[in-house]
Amino acid sequence: MGRYIIRRLLQAIPLLLLLSIFMFALIHLLPGGPEAILVNPNMDAEGRKALRASLGLDDPLPIQYLKWLANAVRGDFGFSFFTNQPVSTVIAERFPPTIELFLLALLLSLILAIVLGTISAYRQGRFIDYAITTVAYFGISMPIFLLGLLMQEIFSRRLQWLPPSGITTAGMSYDAFNGFLDHMLHVAMPMLVLAITFTARWSRYMRSSMLDVTKQDYMRTARAKGLATTPLLVRHALRNAVIPLITVVAIDFGSVAGGATITEGVFAWPGMGQLFLRSLDQRDFPVLLAILMLSAFFVILSNLLADILYAIMDPRIRYS
Amino acid sequence: MMDTPIEKEREDELEALLEVTPALAQKRRSQARIILDRFLRNRTATIGASFLILLFLFCFIGPFLTGHTNPNQPNLLAPDAAPSLAYPFGADDVGRDLLARAAVGGQVSLLVGLASMLVAILLGTAIGAIAGYYGKLLDNILMRITDVFLAVPTYLLLFVLSASFTNGSVYSIIVLISIFGWTTAARLVRGEFLALKEREYVMAARTVGAKDFRLMFRHILPNAIGPIIVNATLLVGQNIILESVLSYFGFGVQAPFPSWGSLISDGQGQINTDPKLVFIPGILIFLTVLSCNLVGDGLRDAFDPHMTER
């Protein structure tokens, strides 16, 4: 197992390298470099040239790439064109809110998907199955930003239960408990939006893999020896039924990250997604590149994690 | 179930033969017929299909019924008109008919959804067929390229690409969305080809002297068409969502062509005063995607009866 993990990690290196070349080229193809956006009306052509040179944008692209790579492998992703802070500082600032939103939504949608999928499969063809299926179809067919706008309209404008956006109420100072409460109220809507979208998708997979499992012989045997429904489902069915779901979740990891970006945009959530959109607007190349590489790295890592989880859940799978 | 493939000349001979025995011709036609019957028996899928037809009628004929065919024609006598007979959906703050805007926006969204589906399916089928049929190095290279696409969050890459390669025209958006749509089709087709190329009928056709190209597209592909059609249907919905997301963040189709996504993006500023500016196109997107998903799943069940029990 240890060898397998090391081999997989080594295999990821050429993929990351390939990706970095691809992304680097892509980003430098963006029309209007940072000097066009770093507007200073007093700057003449001379000054603009000097600015380009100071940002290291005058070297040929391959040289720029190699310079970037040499620093990046040492964990130095350069400086933001706009704030002049190290990229790692900028990202470190934005990372916690994103990971919070991401993990909360992931956890919630996994629990919901497993529970709803299991109920739906166990009650196949009954009313509750149709009800869950209908809701799942709605969730799958709803663009994530539209769901966000809809929930903002209902829960903050109409009902006024939840704050429409942001991470805390601006200009308020709370004690620790109320501050936490305030934060939770802010996190509720973006988290729900993300979770609903992915619960809808994953509960369908859970339902069909649960249906496969319940048709197995060992399920009939367990039932025949008199096992009650709950331990039957939880101990015998669930563990086997969850395995296919792991793959789907791992594959969807990238789209959860994408969905988080959109959600952050809609709810003004000060995370990586917002940073990404802003950096794209400002042509902040170092920050953009770092975010793209970081997300690619996490997607590759999640795939590896899924394969390892696979082996843990299903002892028949052995890697060598 | 499967007809034994033969050379074209032989096939033509058989065609003549078939007229002699109509029972055979009947049987041949019935494969499509069976699928259609199975599809029509599926109530939700039929509802989805009917809604899609209604939607097309609405987008292309709707504006003529109210007489407001120009979605950008302001009417200063009717700003913020409430829904009425002349303005079934009402009007916006400068009196532009919202029904006409929704219908014309729908034309753009449907065009983007359908056209990018077509490009993506053609591209994906070609790549998947080549990878699956030839295997080995070619397969390896093509699948690694697919991996690269899978390793990046689609939306992030899509935003970067749209900022650099599109100029807001409908065609550039279609190309951009197709670039992302082909991977699923490619992997599906590759999988089908890997399984089908070992079948006896393919070997039989090869023995009679059929060339690679003919084997791939005349013999193997027709047997892999089911999953491709299903994927195509689902892809239309996905592409419409992608387009709306791009437009919502300002990277999509630019004025003067309003798509549903850009209508939402335009209306968002007035969501407090006039939420219908956002929610009319929003509901239309939702219903279209829902119908595509229902039809796609209905087709999947119709093509693959073993799945129906699920």
Automatic annotation (TrEMBL), chain A:
Localization per Swiss-Prot or TrEMBL: Cell membrane
InterPro entries: BPD_transp_1_N (IPR045621), MetI-like (IPR000515), MetI-like_sf (IPR035906)
UniProt domain ABC transmembrane type-1: residue ranges: 95-306
Transmembrane helix listed as a keyword: yes
Keywords noted in UniProt: Cell membrane, Membrane, Transmembrane, Transmembrane helix, Transport
GO cellular component labels: plasma membrane
GO biological process: transmembrane transport
Record family assignment: Belongs to the binding-protein-dependent transport system permease family.
Protein name from the UniProt record: ABC transporter permease
Organism whose genome encodes this protein: Thermosporothrix sp. COM3
